Every structure is written in structure tokens, then in C-alpha cells.
Amino acid sequence: MIELYLDTADITETARFHHCFPLTGITTNPTILANSGVGLKATLTYMSNLLGKDARFFAQVVSKEAESMLNEAKKLNELPYDMVVKVPTTEEGLAAIKLMKQGGIQVLATAIYTAQQGFMAALCGADYLAPYVNRIDAMNGDGVAVVRDLQLLIEKHGLSTKILAASFKNVQQAMDVMKLGIGGITLPVDVAMQMFSHPAIEPAVAQFDKDWADAFGDKLSFES
Ligand code: G3P
């Protein structure tokens, strides 16, 4: 089954979607944590208590050089959770991914804007690739096409890397990439909400309620 994540550090929103979605865990990035005003360790404590011990968490290194990224990744990997270390897919980031994989650390290559960039990360051993679908679209590119190319390359070359598509502004983008058979997706809260939003849903349910009440009052289904 596709792995479904929320791209957030908001504990209230995570609780809401944990209630109704089969969440695998949450993904974060430096901007998300900075905006939340809560550090990584406290966020992970809250999230782990909420989602349980099987939840998977993604946290990004902020170091700049490959060796220091590796040292930071080792610290993240020591946290008592199922951690995946996010690494920006730069020249140093690719070098860091190679080092991290030698050390058996789970890695996601992030900030992917092109198929070639993601493919190199996959060849370096990244467990996950995070192509930024909406950010690519917003630059007059084709985010879904990048994901399609990456998925094709992964399959053609028999790689175990999974695409964990990220950066969405609407459900169309999310649905388009999920149709490609990718391994995972992380949704911001507003797009997660759009998953069960449609103007026809509430009127349909209201009509059922009215018809039922007219016929059977306040009886429950099995009482009728
Ligand atoms: O976590 C990185 C990615 O999800 C970025 O999303 O919405 O900032 O483009 P966004």
C-alpha cells in the first residue's frame, strides 16, 4: 500500500487526520519546524505519543558539508523513533547520501526538481526521493512528468528506491502522481482536507438524513 504522510509539525492537525486517514507518519522540513515554533525533539515526542511506536518520521539535516551532514544524520538516527534523514539533493548532499547508506541510515533525498537529480540520488542509494511537484509546476515545469520519469527510471533499473512525492497545492496534482504507482506521498494539511471535500457530499448526506427522519424518525438503521 502507498505510504501516506502529513507534511506538518502541527499536532492538532495530525491528530485530526490520524483519526480518519491511515497515516504512516509525518514529514517535516526546516521551514515547517521554524514556522511551528517547536523544535524537532518536542515535535517528535508529541507525534510519537499520538501516532504510536510504528510511525515513521522524516527530519532534514541543516549541515552543509557531506561529513557534517553525516554526523548530524547519525544523531537523528539515534533518536528512539523510526527516523528517515532528509538530505537536500545537492552535490554535497549526494556525497552525504553515499556516506549515510554505508552507515545503514535511512535516507530521503529532498528538494528534487529534475528527474536526473532524483535518479542520481537513487543510484547513490537513497531510500526515498521527494520530487517537489507544485514547486516544479509553479516554475512553469511539469511536476507530474518529473515523477513519471523517476518512477519509470526506478522500475527500468530495478532500484528499491521509493518516490515520496511532496509539495502539493491541489488534489489534482496528488491524484496524478498516485496514479503512477509511487511508493508514498506527503500532503500538506490543506490538500489532505481536499481529499474528502466536494460540494455535492454534504447535500447528499443531508438528503439521506431528511428521507430517513421523514420515514423513521429518530430510529437507528437496525431499529427500523
Ligand atoms: O517538505 C518539503 C516539501 O513538502 C515542500 O512543500 O509546500 O513548501 O512546496 P511546499
UniProtKB/TrEMBL annotation:
Listed EC numbers: 4.1.2.-
Alphabetical keyword list: Cytoplasm, Lyase, Schiff base
Pfam families from the UniProt entry: TAL_FSA (PF00923)
Entry's Gene Ontology cellular component terms: cytoplasm
Reaction equations catalysed: beta-D-fructose 6-phosphate = dihydroxyacetone + D-glyceraldehyde 3-phosphate
Domain of life: Bacteria
InterPro entries: Aldolase_TIM, TAL/FSA, Transaldolase_AS, TSA/FSA_arc/bac
Keyword Cytoplasm belongs to the record: yes
Gene Ontology MF terms: fructose 6-phosphate aldolase activity
Single biological process term from Gene Ontology: ketone catabolic process
Cellular localization per UniProt: Cytoplasm
PANTHER family according to UniProt: FRUCTOSE-6-PHOSPHATE ALDOLASE 1-RELATED, TRANSALDOLASE
Family stated for the protein in its record: Belongs to the transaldolase family. Type 3A subfamily.
Protein name, UniProt field: Fructose-6-phosphate aldolase 1
Protein species of origin: Vibrio thalassae
Native organism taxonomy: Bacteria, Pseudomonadati, Pseudomonadota, Gammaproteobacteria, Vibrionales
